[in-house]
Design brief:
Helices cover about 55% and strands about 5% of the residues. The protein is mostly helical. The mean pLDDT is about 80. It has a two-stranded parallel ribbon with strand order 1-2.
Length: about 100
């Protein structure tokens, strides 16, 4: 149940791209793998959330770098956010888990 809640928070937030391949399937541009990974997941909380979830609160970073130790996710997150902003990719970050929960329901 705990994992289900964590995955729901990380993938069902407000404005999540629920179908990143829709445009491609209907004659649009090919899907950018990087953009799809970022816009279908979110990052929430800080140090405490990271300790309690084993790093699962950094879903964006996990999707982009699945083989990297989750201990590094808090350190690379600011760079990932800057790169996303530079390229117009929506990076969903919620400073508190309850904010992510509200955006999910």
């Amino acid at each position: 149940l705990t994992l289900a809640i964590l995955f729901a928070l990380s993938h069902n937030f407000e404005n999540a791209d629920r179908d990143p391949t829709y445009q491609t399937r209907h004659g649009g541009e090919p899907v950018c793998w990087f953009k799809a990974q970022v816009e279908t997941s979110s990052t929430y909380g800080g140090f405490v959330s990271g300790c309690l979830t084993g790093g699962l609160n950094h879903q964006v970073e996990h999707h982009l770098f699945p083989r990297m130790s989750s201990a590094w996710y808090p350190y690379i997150a600011p760079t990932v956010r800057r790169v996303c902003e530079k390229h117009g990719v929506r990076y969903a970050y919620y400073p508190w888990v309850w904010q992510n929960l509200i955006s999910t329901v």
